[in-house]
Amino acid sequence: MRPLPGRRKRLALAVGVPSSLVLSLTGAVAIGALASTPGTAGAADQHPAAVGNAGQRRVRDPRPAVATGSATSCTTVGHIGDSTSVGMVSPEYLPDPAQRLAAQYADVGVRHLWVDASGGRSIVETLPGQVNGYNVARNWVAEGFHGCWVFALGTNDTANVAVGSSVSRMARIDEMMAVAHGEPVMWVNTHTLLSSGPWAEANMQIWNDDLLAACAMYPNMRIFNWASMEQPAWHIPDGIHYTSAGYAIRAAAIAHALAAAFPRGGHSRGCVVN
82, 87, 161, 245: most buried, per Cβ within 10 A? Predict the structure, then answer.
């Protein structure tokens, strides 16, 4: 499928500080920051690093119900995310490496991990100096990536559509599925605590409904139903991002959802992993 040009309707609403963390366990580790200017999101642009004692509370095991020692058939994984993934790979939020996304994926059998998480990212639009989700995936394919995909995107995409982007939600999903070329894909669905504005929960629900419709068309696609399990206590006051405890829960839950979606020796029967 021809890529949707990022310069069309450059809304690029920004959720989170526009920073990027890139981690590849296949070779060198590169960590950098994008010198981007926040979009028009106002207060939602802020992603404070300080979470206080709330980030240290013990919480129940949030992982999808999978057998102890379960593993995924996805030994190589490419994870592309927005600011709701940045906290899962950041030492600032998760000082203990065992809680971060790489360790959680390794626990379920992932041996080679590519991660690109950038605040304000969408599939189509770009902030200055940023690479959108589609082009991150396309660049990885050009570099020889083969494996399973985890797309933790959509929070900014559905907000951009809500404020007038001409690129539909379904077109965005189709774009990412096209670049995966039939390889296993797990989407992480979206959720906020907001009742109004571009990032309102109502817009997240529209995105999640479109994910379900797309899943019926793509046999290689699964959806991790993060929206059904997350709790308000895991959020910071902006209603979008998470505390340190929330990011630790999210990282563990995504990794174990991958093992449930694409277990060793097969795949789940239904579209949705709860």
Answer: 87
d(CA 77, CA 82): 17
List Cβ neighbours of 233 (8 Å cut-off, separation of 6 or more): 54, 57
Quote the distance between the C-alpha of residue 60 and its chain's center: 22
Q: What DSSP assignment string belongs to 21-78?
A: EEEETTS--EEE-------S-GGGG---S--GGGGG--------S--TT--BS-SEEE
Q: For residue 268, what are the CA distances in angstroms to 106, 151, 258?
A: 20, 18, 10
Domain ranges for the chain, please list them.
20-27+68-267
Instruction: Give the gyration radius of the chain's Cα atoms.
Output: 17
Cβ within 8 Å of residue 58, ≥6 positions away:
none
- Those residues whose C-beta lies under 8 Å from the C-beta of residue 5, and which sit 6 or more positions away, are none
CATH code matching the domain that covers 20-27+68-267, chosen among 2.40.50.140, 3.90.960.10, 3.30.420.40, 3.40.50.1110: 3.40.50.1110
pTM of the model: 0.81
Q: In sequence order, what are the beta bridge partners of 152?
A: 81
Q: Are the C-beta atoms of 127 and 37 separated by less than 8 Å?
A: yes
